[in-house]
Structures are given as C-alpha cells and as structure tokens.
Amino acid sequence: MAAVVELRGIAKSYGRQTALEALDLSVGPGEVVGLLGPNGAGKTTAVKVVLGLVRPSSGEGRLFGRPLGDPEARRKVGYLPEMFRNPPWLTAREVMRYHAELLGLPAAQRGRVVDAALANADLTDRADDLVGRYSKGMQQRVGLAVALLGGPALVVLDEPATGLDPIGREELRGAIRGLRESGTSVLLNSHQLSEVEQVCDRVTILHQGHVLADGRLDELLRAGGIRVRVTGLEQPLPPPLDRFGPVERDADLFLFRGLDQRRVPELVATLVELGAQVHAVEPIQPTLEERFRQLLHVPPEGHA
Amino acid sequence: MIDLGATWVIARLTLREAMRRRMLLALFGLSGVAVLLTAWGYGQLQNVPGVSTGNVSIDQVQLVASQLLIGVTFMFSFILALFAVLAAAPAIAGARESGELQAIAARPVPRSSILLGKWLALALVVVGYAAASGIAELVVVALITGYVPVQPAEAILYVAAEGIVVLSLTFLLGTRLSAVTSGVVAMLLFGIAWLSGVVGGIGLAFGDQAMSWVAPLVSVMLPSDGLWRGAIYSLEPASVVLAGAGAGPQIAAFPFFADSPPAPAFIAWSVAWVVIVLLGAGIGFARNDL
Question: CB-CB: which of A14, A72, A84 is closest to B102?
Fold first, then answer.
C-alpha cells in the first residue's frame, strides 16, 4: 500500500543554519511513527515540511501521493502544533466549527461532526465556554479535538503531551492507540521517550538535522547483549571466552555486550566446559531512553 | 489559486475579531467625541463677532468651515492610516509569531485565501470607518454651517482608498517582517509619502524642478498622498479652487490645498498598485516558512 507520507532527501537550511539534512521518512497507512530527538534536532521542521508549512531547501516528498504544499493533500490531515493558540474569545464549539468550515465539511454534517469531536474530547459540558478561560490541559484537549476533527487519515502531533498531567497523558496514549486501531496513521513528534516507546510502531531518531536511527521499535530495542550469572570461573578469564566479544564483570555477573542471542547455547556450553556453574542467563534489553543515549553518545544517568 | 469558501470563512472570523477589539471600540468612540467637539467648534463659528451684524458673510463662514473640515478630515485620515497599520501588522506577521497561522495553514486552504480573507475583512473595517467618520462630519458641518462640499462621496472614497493603500502596504511588509517592524515601517512610509507631497508643493511654489518631482514620483511608489489630495479637492468649495488658481504658483506650498482632482490615470494606477502589492504579498506569504 502506498505510503501516506514519503520524504526523500529533504534538507532545510535557515541561512547558514542547517535544520534538516537528507531526511528520509515514510509513514504507512495505519502506522504510528515517532520522531525523536533532543531540542533543535529538526523534529518540528520535519513535521512542518510534511504539512507544507516549511518549504524544503532540497529533496522531495509526497503526502497522500500529492506534492508537499498541495492544499488538497492536507484535506485528510489533522494537526496539533507544538505552539498553538486558538482565539481565546471563541468557545470550544466555535473553534471546532471554524476548523470544520476550513476543512470544507458540508454544512449539514458540521454540527454532528463537531458534537462528536467535543464528546470524544470530553468537552461537551464546557463546549460553550471561551477557550481563553480553559486550563492549559483543557486547551491542549481542544487542540487534539481539532486535530481529530472529521476523522483524518493522518494525524500529526507535535509534542502533544505538553501541559498534560499524568491522567491526560494516559488519555493521549489511549487516543493514539485508538487511532492506530481505526487505521489512522500518526506522526508523533516528541521528546518524551516513554510516550513514544509505549505507542509507536516505528521510530526515527534525529540529531542536528541528521537521522541517527530509523526502524521498528523492536529492532531498535533489540537485545544489547547477554547477562550471565556464573560462579566457579577462574581469573583471568580463560581464552575460549574471547570469541564472545568484550566482557564486563561485576562480581558474579558477566555482561557480554553485543552478543547475539542466538549464540547463548554456545556460550553456556563453553562456560560449562570451563567448569563454571551457570545460574542465570538473560538478554540485556535496553529501554528507548538507553538506546537514545547510546546513539547520542550521552552516558547513562548517574554516570559521569 | 483562491478558495472562495475558505476566504469567506477567514474574512468572517477576522471581521469578528476586529469588531471585538478594544482598539476599534476606542477608534469609533473617540472619533464620535471628535465629531461632537468639531460640532461645537462649527457652532462657535456662528458666534464670531460680525456674523450677526452681517460684517462676516455666510460665504466667509462656509469658507472657514470648509478649511476646518479639511483639517478634521486630515486628522481622521491619519487615524485611519494608523488603525490600518495596527490592524494589518498582526494579521499576518502577528498570527505567524503567535502560532495561530500554522493551525490554519495546515488545513486544505491555499495561503492566498488566508491573506485575502484577512485583507478583505480589514478593508471592510477601513471603508466602514472612513464612511462613518466622513458622513458624521459632513452631516455636522452641513447642519451647523450649511456648507456641503461639491463632491462629498468622492472625498470619503479618497480617504477610504488612502486607508486601503496603507493597509495593503502593511500586509506586504507583514509577510516578510515582524509585526512591530512592519507596522513601524508602514507608518514611516506613509509619513514620508505625505511629506513628499508637501515638499513637491514647495518645489512647485519656488520653481525648483527637482523638488517638484518628488511628489509625483513618491505618489507612484505609494499613492496615499495623491489620494489624500483628491480628498482635499473634493472637500474644497469652488471659490477656493478659483481663488487658488488666481493666486499664482505659491499656493502650491499650502499643504491643505489642491487645485485639481487626481488624474484618471493616477486613480487607475492606485487601483493597480493595490492589486500589485496584494499579489506581492500573496507570493511572499506563499513562500513564508511558518
């Protein structure tokens, strides 16, 4: 099936400053893709390129098969900007109606669609209050409801968890999972790694405009080695263990970093041959945060 | 490429936003106060010693009233230009800075529709203010002094057109500059255009060819002052125009006198100027990174 978003070799510079360099990005139908990176990595620029808000310096891309910047391509897109401001003198219902009109929904459908969106966002009770009087979290909820208005085929969320409390964040995760279940594609730009880890199928990690890593979460988070608890092993380690790569030792724990899980039987057999007692074997499963730090060459928290 | 439906939606919201702004309320409120104060002033003209005894004729009173009317209209036109700048500067530049534009531009709406919708709404407010302030002032003058300019509707149209020119200029600047910078630059250019008209008049009065070319040259680049001179001409009594014609070239140095209406070619250029500036703004806005 054709990709919903397809970027190839996108670069963007602001004067001498490079925001993006040779970015390849694709989002398939029903796929939840996370854009990760530290501040200034180029995530928001990438999102804006997709939406036609920023013109790339070079490269090409398509949105629903149409060139980037084609207004018609955005008809099936919902967008929650990172920094947005709904007119504070409008009620939530009026904001939704305004966007429904911009979306080109037929007049006969607008009321129903707006009511449904307000209900989904749990805003029905306060739909006729001015959004200027809403809390930050409620304003974010209005923004999300606007993005989901009319059932878009692609939802672009730029730092959607900003301003949300833990309950709001859980609701957001639920909303994203619901979108995936309904076949809606999601491009999620976030620096909250736990959010991305919990809801994304695929992740692109950006750093200073470059793609550091791109792939499915399970690939990115594949075991980073094997941890073995062993007793009875002499010091220094016998040479037969050299073929399993570098080993870190912490008392009875031996960390074989980078060792493929498929070589575990061979490792255990070797240890037994050497007269050691193997008590436990487990893969080292990094979290997204650990992987992210590895890619950025940032030491783990608590380490100098 | 313009989506008329989206243009209308954006124009409606922009108009609604403009109408609820305190700036507009203050503009209309204080303009109402200004009309009342000028009404009192025109009334005082009737009490000038000599009017009751017949030493000062009604024609002379009306002559003074016409000059006061031009002065008051100048004030209103200045306020209108200031309003146009203050309303137009945040319309594009301010909305871009606040993030409001990103949410709209991510919809299936051509940017030209966003620009045109906002421009149409504010142009309507500019024309509305020019008409309301002009009609109120003209009615007051007519009721109190009996003076009715030969071309009152034209005068209002020229003032409105001057406001539209400044509004369009600020939109153009707003696609490239920040809200504050575009507002300041537009106001400066408006002032320079008016001053060039004065300089041009002085050049004509003293036979300095270089100076006399300043006004028409600047009017081509920014036609606000040429349009203002059309308003002056429309508000003058025929007797003033005749007297001016006989007064020699020195009368051109008087900044509140116009001896002829703007040429049709200038009016056509002014319309074309607005169209060109809006096209330029549209192209600039379409290329903006939001």
Answer: A84
